Amino acid sequence: MHVQMTQIYDLLDPAKVVIAYEPVWAIGTGLTATPEDAQATHKGIRDLIAKHASASVADAIRIQYGGSANAANAPDLSAQPDIDGFLVGGASLKPEFAEIVKAIAEAKAAQPA
Ligand SMILES: O=C[C@H](O)COP(=O)(O)O
């Protein structure tokens, strides 16, 4: 990941940039990373940003999960401290999209800032 991110550390303005982690095997397949695996990867990205940009940038930047997010898996993914939102594909075309938005909104409201 560090190799991929080397060229962007200096560009990470949290007011303008959102990072998305999407396991390629999960995009449009119905397969989703487990909450634990997604959290570990998001934390790894945030730790790299803290080390190579700054702690304040790492704290403030949004890191979203993409890859078959849906109403069923959104609550558990949303509960992970380093998952700040979703990049929703197929489920954005279905009524369940509202449930995904509700899940992430409620989870983040319940977590410390
Ligand atoms: O833009 C959406 C992402 O590529 C994920 O799509 P998906 O939710 O259909 O897997």
Automatic annotation (TrEMBL):
Catalytic activity: D-glyceraldehyde 3-phosphate = dihydroxyacetone phosphate
Protein name: Triosephosphate isomerase
Family annotation (Pfam families): TIM (PF00121)
Enzyme Commission code: 5.3.1.1
InterPro entries xref list: Aldolase_TIM, TIM_sf, Triosephosphate_isomerase, Triosephosphate_isomerase_AS
Classification via PANTHER family: TRIOSEPHOSPHATE ISOMERASE
Organism: Prorocentrum cordatum
Pathway: Carbohydrate degradation; glycolysis; D-glyceraldehyde 3-phosphate from glycerone phosphate: step 1/1; Carbohydrate biosynthesis; gluconeogenesis
Family under the similarity heading: Belongs to the triosephosphate isomerase family.
CDD domains according to UniProt: TIM (cd00311)
Keyword terms, alphabetized: Gluconeogenesis, Glycolysis, Isomerase
Quaternary structure annotation from Swiss-Prot or TrEMBL: Homodimer.
Keyword Isomerase: yes
Domain of life: Eukaryota
